[in-house]
Design a protein that fits this description.
It is an enzyme of class 3 (hydrolase). The protein has 455 residues and is of the alpha/beta class. The protein is built from 14 helices and 13 strands. The radius of gyration is 23 Å and the shape is globular. The structure holds pyridoxal-5'-phosphate.
């Protein structure tokens, strides 16, 4: 069901929040206006105003929202379902798969490139430099291995200990297999990787620098242009993981001269669970690089069925095997929606939402033992805010039960993702009110301290 009341819902939900809060705070008396701290009211009213002035507010109706009372703050792990994706997939299933059958491949064969061109516009790349392929993990392997092959005399790979685990594991595997020196910088988990630290660790032995642009834990934005330039000056290639950047902040790959990048489509690009990742290779590097998984989708004349592998020209040589078509269409629809809204408008709202969330946290959560674990400056953050609390895991479970969906990140952090296309300011006010009520009343203490398999 599509929520066609979405435009009015945040205001209604926000308006009900102070009463709920008054009723549950320890020693609560019936909520009366004069008993409220004025700054809370001010913050609530400001949220309402920000929603009323929000140029992207209409995009909320473009998503399937079945339970408007649930505040979804995990769009950076799995974006919501766009209405157009649901409709497109139904059509593809009925018409293309159901009726055209194998003949559909004449269209499907172009899907990765078409989607790649839409994503290129969101990450500052050119047409023909981006395609859909495999998962982010597999792409990291293919691209890192290709880069290492292109720098045969060099024996070192540079990353940081705040990088996403899959990135670290893949680099560990490559380093072990190739007997390379894996240099792991220490980064502050709240502030992210620093360009100066990368600069200091670069030398003539480094073949590849592999980092995340927006840190998965804190949301800190790395200095992509500065680090890329420093790596190039040292003769290394750079591979950026854009999983938390694509669809949330502008990236500027071409402008910075980035060599290689990859990222997820199921987070801010709303491509759906398990949707294929995208990969980017700068055009002039495409003929020079060879990736290590030689499959028939990367072959020059795929349907010649020739006996000898000869890599295709262009970005197609980074493909491997048959792509997931249904998920590919979902990735295309999701990316189109972001492209339609425009990445600058999305990023501006991400800054406003996260800024508002930090203000709410300062005013209402800091007294309960929360501390900001993300950068405070607007330009230094992506589209999530992380809060430290020693009981973060228990709080996370209680919050989900009370219909606010964040996620937990080790060791003691609550990650609150905002999705500029569908998160409202009013929802953030409600989420923080519920969070405050839970912790003030100690309701989280009834939940297990032991973590579950999926957080
Ligand atoms: C989510 C995420 C991934 C996930 O990779 P998959 O191969 O899709 O599982 C990788 N890197 C970063 C930085 C992420 O945030």
């Amino acid at each position: 069901m599509v929520d066609d009341r979405a435009r009015t819902e945040p205001t209604r939900a926000a308006a009900s929040a102070p009463a709920a809060e008054g009723a549950t705070v320890a020693g609560a008396r019936p909520a009366v206006a004069s008993a409220r701290r004025p700054d809370h009211d001010e913050l609530r009213i400001r949220g309402e105003r920000l929603d009323a002035e929000d140029p992207l507010a209409g995009y909320r109706n473009r998503f399937v929202i079945t339970d408007p009372d649930t505040v979804y703050l995990d769009g950076n792990s799995l974006g919501r379902l766009p209405v157009s994706t649901r409709d497109r997939l139904r059509e593809v299933i009925d018409v293309e798969w159901g009726t055209e059958l194998i003949r559909g491949w004449s269209r499907w064969i172009e899907l990765g490139r078409r989607t790649g061109d839409v994503i290129a516009g969101l990450i500052g790349a050119e047409h023909g430099e981006v395609t859909l392929s495999d998962s982010t993990s597999v792409n990291l392997y293919k691209l890192a291995a290709a880069a290492l092959d292109a720098r045969p005399g060099r024996r070192a790979v540079l990353t940081d200990d705040d990088n996403f685990p899959t990135d670290q594991y893949l680099l560990q595997g490559l380093a072990e297999a190739g007997d390379l020196d894996l240099r792991v910088l220490h980064s502050d988990p709240d502030r992210g990787v620093r360009a100066d630290d990368v600069g200091a660790a670069l030398d003539a032995d480094v073949a590849l620098v592999c980092l995340s642009h927006v840190a998965y834990r804190s949301g800190a934005v790395a200095d992509l242009a500065g680090i890329t330039m420093a790596a190039h000056e040292a003769g290394a290639l750079v591979l950026w993981d854009l999983s938390h950047s694509a669809g949330s902040v502008p990236v500027g790959l071409s402008e910075a001269g980035v060599d290689l990048a990859t990222g997820c489509t199921y987070k801010h690009l709303n491509g759906g669970p398990g949707a294929p990742a995208f990969l980017y290779v700068r055009r002039d590097l495409q003929p020079v690089l060879r990736q290590p998984i030689w499959g028939w989708f990367g072959q020059a004349d795929q349907f010649d069925m020739a006996g000898r592998y000869q890599p295709a020209d262009g970005i197609d040589r980074f493909l491997v095997g048959t792509p997931p078509v249904l998920s590919g269409y979902a990735a295309l629809e999701g990316a189109r929606l972001s492209a339609e809204a425009g990445i600058e408008a999305i990023a501006a709202k991400a800054r406003a939402l996260t800024g508002y969330l930090i203000e709410l946290a300062d005013a209402r959560l800091a007294p309960l033992g929360f501390r900001l674990a993300s950068p405070r400056e607007d330009a230094a953050r992506g589209a999530h805010v992380t809060l430290y609390h020693p009981q973060a895991w228990q709080i996370c479970q209680a919050l989900i039960q009370e219909r606010v969906i964040p996620d937990f990140r080790t060791p003691d952090r609550l990650r609150l993702g905002v999705a500029p296309l569908y998160t409202s300011f009013g929802e953030l006010y409600v989420a923080v009110s519920r969070l405050r009520d839970i912790v003030a009343a100690g309701r989280h203490e009834a939940f297990p301290t032991q973590r579950s398999r999926v957080t």
